[in-house]
Amino acid sequence: MPLKLDTSSYENYKPHSFLLDRLSIKAEIASREEIHQVKKKKRGFEFPFINRRSINYVKEEGFTFNPEVLKLKTSTYFSGYWQSEKYFKNIETHIRKEFVLKKELAQSREKIFKEILASREPVSIHVRRGDYVSNAKANAFHGTCEPEWYAKAIQEIRKNSVEITPVVFSDDIDWVKKNIELDCNVIWVEPDEDGHDFEDMYLMSVCQNHITANSTFSWWGAWLNPNKDKRVIVPQKWFNSQSMKTIDLIPAGWERL
Questions:
Q1: Radius of gyration over alpha carbons of the chain, in Å?
Q2: Tens digit of pLDDT for each residue in 26-73?
Q3: Which residues are within 8 A (CB) of 5 and not within 5 positions of it... i.e. 6 or more apart?
Q4: CATH number of 108-256
């Protein structure tokens, strides 16, 4: 079936604009009428109820993998993150082919790209601050990874690779420099206001190994690395809330610390 995207939420979303169209995704943008037709009836189409004469409406319930979703055979509106590799493991090659840049990297990032390729065992390190710190609600829900955790993660990576090149991605580089000790040459990827965040995600994916924050952004940066031998270290606690079950959120082979 054709893939259509509901981008209506971005009309009032301030942090950034819709950017998936900067990648080679084969998808259409759903019209207002199509979205309206689905959402006005969604109360009657909650999963697992299926009406084969209409479009199903499926809302994700947490991060636990639901195998029943993969059995759907008719047109379906999916609402949620669906951030479990189990939903798309069988088409991972196809997804990686579509999640590539349509255009060449911006000049500033092209320089970083070449530095990464020329470096010895580059490790992407994502330190997310921003709304995780400034927004009380986001902080209470997500929490942040503290300097001690990053120190342990770097130490763990060095058990296999003594000479690494940290490639640090953060929306608060100054905080990282003051709080996380990196006693080697570092490649700093500073935030840019050009709206090309998707290029930073691409730069993450070309690193050899990864230390992620409790963030979807670095999750995808690490996942898009096709290297079967990569090491990915992620926080043991992805959310502050203990009620959130994340057993299916982390792919097999990734290391929780």
A1: 20
A2: 999 999 888 887 877 654 444 444 444 567 888 888 889 999 999 888
A3: 20, 27, 28, 29, 30
A4: 3.40.50
**What gap in Å lies between CA 244 and CA 69, rounded to an integer?**
20
Domain with CATH 3.40.50 in the chain: 108-256
In this structure, what token pair is assigned to residue 233?
């270290």
pLDDT class for 136, splitting at 50, 70, 90? low
Torsion sign, CA atoms 61, 66, 223, 3: negative
Where do runs of H (alpha helix) occur along 99-238?
107-118, 130-134, 136-142, 147-157, 173-179, 197-205, 216-223
Q: How far apart are CA 204 and CA 198, in angstroms?
A: 10
Contact call for residues 7 and 15 (beta carbons, < 8 A) = no
Q: What is the pTM of this model?
A: 0.87
- Burial (Cβ within 10 Å: 0-12, 13-18, ≥19) of residue 138: middle
